[in-house]
Amino acid sequence: MSLEIANVSKSFDGAEAVLDDVSLAMHEGEFLALLGPSGSGKTTLLNVVAGLTRPDRGRLVLDGEDITDRHAGARRFGMVFQSYALFRHMSVAQNVDFGLRVLPRAERPPKAERDARVRELLDLIEMGDLGARYPAQLSGGQRQRVAMARALAISPKLLLLDEPFSALDAQVRQSLRGSVRELQRKVGVAAILVTHDQTEAFAIADRVAVMNTGRIEQIGTERELRDAPASPFVRDFLKAGAG
Amino acid sequence: MMARAVLIALALAFSVLFIVLPVAAIFTRAFADGPGAWIAAVTEPETLAAIRLTVLTALIVVPVNIVFGLAAAWAIARFRFPGRRALLVLIEVPFAISPIIAGLCFLLVYGAYGPVGGALQPLGIQLMFNLTGIVLVSLFVTCPFVMREVLPALSVSGEDEEHAALTLGASGWQVFRLVTLPNITWPLVYGAILATARAIGEFGAVSVVSGAIRGQTMTLPLQIELLYNDYNTTAAFAAATVLALLALVTLVLRGIVDAIQPARGATP
Ligand SMILES: Nc1ncnc2c1ncn2[C@@H]1O[C@H](COP(=O)(O)OP(=O)(O)OP(=O)(O)O)[C@@H](O)[C@H]1O
Ligand SMILES: [Mg+2]
């Protein structure tokens, strides 16, 4: 899988541009972090990639195919929301099953196969016994993992994570960081993680894209960004966070 | 302690005087001449026709209300569009103005001499003084109920779950049926019950546009007034018991909804 974001711009209600000519290319199986201050357009960019927000200009190309006009469901990108957005009235197992349940009849696996897949995913997130629980009965970390399993259930081509750890305390955050990275490697899926925490970005991602006021200032590894910041903003932003 | 006892006694006395006694009086008066007279009065063709018309009206009005209320609440909760605030205010109008004025407005616009009614007249379409007119004004007076109950629930249930369902491949209809609707089921049922009660009991607006054709365009409330004015007191009260029973059914339904709702909330 290779994804190319080409010259994407977006503004809401004719106001100032929230995304301003954003371009970036992702490699096979890469873990990319979008790092930037609040309001810099990270979530908007993720929503454009997910198909939840339509860009005003620019294209999205997936494996050589233009998917700009493809609707969210047909893209098969698994998304984990900042609020987790678990279905409140469904059990954990039903949440994870959702992506399989809504498949067209012809593509939908038989119930037994679906159940097996759900069990496999629940084991993967080490919540095998909690399938019958409802989201309200879970801890924050458990909810986060269910959201992850639900996104993985559709065998996504790309995983989109919007500040998935921001609602958790520091300790849980650190341990989940490791397990998310491990899950992503195990499944072999490319991922984009949105965060405003540079420690998190550098700890988890192969490359980090630094965003500011709707533009990507620089993309690179921690080394590249620190040794050769492309703009004063990147230099100051990384310095501020490190200090 | 003393104050509490006094307050409770006051509340009880008030309920008995102003709620229990009048309702009990209807039933006592209706059965004053014995159950035979009650049955005879209720099965009288004109009264039966009125019951039928009232139920039919509710059966048309409430589903339309549900669809319209859902659509309006959805649009207001999920989209920013010009006129959104106006819609929010406009939808309260039926609650703010007197039903009889509503009836007169409909007559002015949709009656034979109104702009819409007049235009339809040559085509042989008459909107007022028949079932259509009764349904139209009933729709008007009941239209805020469903939307008002659903909108707050829809606003708090948020877009995130719907977006998540979309990224998981659900179609628009699947999102609505599997994600949105379960989150607003109880407010929806509640609004529908309130709308039903109002549709059944509406007098003022309907009396203006019904045309009062005996046995044809008389709803139950209108029929009751007619019988009463004819000094046919037993029949009037017998018909009133039917209306009261219909209202009691909606009250019981409401109680059931209230009882179930918190239980569901505890295990979301
Ligand atoms: N639906 C919308 N309508 C209008 N403006 C919006 C909308 N969504 C986002 N914006 C604006 O776009 C800008 C970028 O928002 P975005 O949510 O992408 O920022 P972010 O980088 O994710 O910030 P945070 O770290 O706080 O989540 C903000 O100024 C925001 O007010
Ligand atoms: Mg954001």
TrEMBL record, chain A:
<dbReference type="InterPro" id="IPR027417">
    <property type="entry name" value="P-loop_NTPase"/>
</dbReference>
<dbReference type="Pfam" id="PF00005">
    <property type="entry name" value="ABC_tran"/>
</dbReference>
<dbReference type="InterPro" id="IPR003439">
    <property type="entry name" value="ABC_transporter-like_ATP-bd"/>
</dbReference>
<keyword id="KW-0547">Nucleotide-binding</keyword>
<keyword id="KW-0067">ATP-binding</keyword>
<dbReference type="InterPro" id="IPR003593">
    <property type="entry name" value="AAA+_ATPase"/>
</dbReference>
<dbReference type="GO" id="GO:0005886">
    <property type="term" value="C:plasma membrane"/>
</dbReference>
<protein>
    <submittedName>
        <fullName>Sulfate transport system ATP-binding protein</fullName>
    </submittedName>
</protein>
<keyword id="KW-0813">Transport</keyword>
<dbReference type="GO" id="GO:0005524">
    <property type="term" value="F:ATP binding"/>
</dbReference>
<dbReference type="GO" id="GO:0016887">
    <property type="term" value="F:ATP hydrolysis activity"/>
</dbReference>
<dbReference type="InterPro" id="IPR017871">
    <property type="entry name" value="ABC_transporter-like_CS"/>
</dbReference>
<dbReference type="GO" id="GO:0032991">
    <property type="term" value="C:protein-containing complex"/>
</dbReference>
<feature type="domain" description="ABC transporter">
    <location>
        <begin position="3"/>
        <end position="238"/>
    </location>
</feature>
<dbReference type="GO" id="GO:0015847">
    <property type="term" value="P:putrescine transport"/>
</dbReference>
<dbReference type="InterPro" id="IPR050093">
    <property type="entry name" value="ABC_SmlMolc_Importer"/>
</dbReference>
UniProtKB/TrEMBL annotation, chain B:
<dbReference type="InterPro" id="IPR005667">
    <property type="entry name" value="Sulph_transpt2"/>
</dbReference>
<keyword id="KW-0472">Membrane</keyword>
<comment type="function">
    <text>Part of the ABC transporter complex CysAWTP (TC 3.A.1.6.1) involved in sulfate/thiosulfate import. Probably responsible for the translocation of the substrate across the membrane.</text>
</comment>
<feature type="domain" description="ABC transmembrane type-1">
    <location>
        <begin position="51"/>
        <end position="254"/>
    </location>
</feature>
<feature type="transmembrane region" description="Helical">
    <location>
        <begin position="125"/>
        <end position="147"/>
    </location>
</feature>
<dbReference type="Pfam" id="PF00528">
    <property type="entry name" value="BPD_transp_1"/>
</dbReference>
<keyword id="KW-1133">Transmembrane helix</keyword>
<dbReference type="GO" id="GO:0005886">
    <property type="term" value="C:plasma membrane"/>
</dbReference>
<feature type="transmembrane region" description="Helical">
    <location>
        <begin position="87"/>
        <end position="113"/>
    </location>
</feature>
<dbReference type="GO" id="GO:0015419">
    <property type="term" value="F:ABC-type sulfate transporter activity"/>
</dbReference>
<dbReference type="InterPro" id="IPR000515">
    <property type="entry name" value="MetI-like"/>
</dbReference>
<dbReference type="InterPro" id="IPR035906">
    <property type="entry name" value="MetI-like_sf"/>
</dbReference>
<protein>
    <submittedName>
        <fullName>Sulfate transport system permease protein</fullName>
    </submittedName>
</protein>
<comment type="subunit">
    <text>The complex is composed of two ATP-binding proteins (CysA), two transmembrane proteins (CysT and CysW) and a solute-binding protein (CysP).</text>
</comment>
<keyword id="KW-0764">Sulfate transport</keyword>
<feature type="transmembrane region" description="Helical">
    <location>
        <begin position="233"/>
        <end position="253"/>
    </location>
</feature>
<dbReference type="InterPro" id="IPR011866">
    <property type="entry name" value="CysW_permease"/>
</dbReference>
<keyword id="KW-0812">Transmembrane</keyword>
<feature type="transmembrane region" description="Helical">
    <location>
        <begin position="49"/>
        <end position="75"/>
    </location>
</feature>
<keyword id="KW-0813">Transport</keyword>
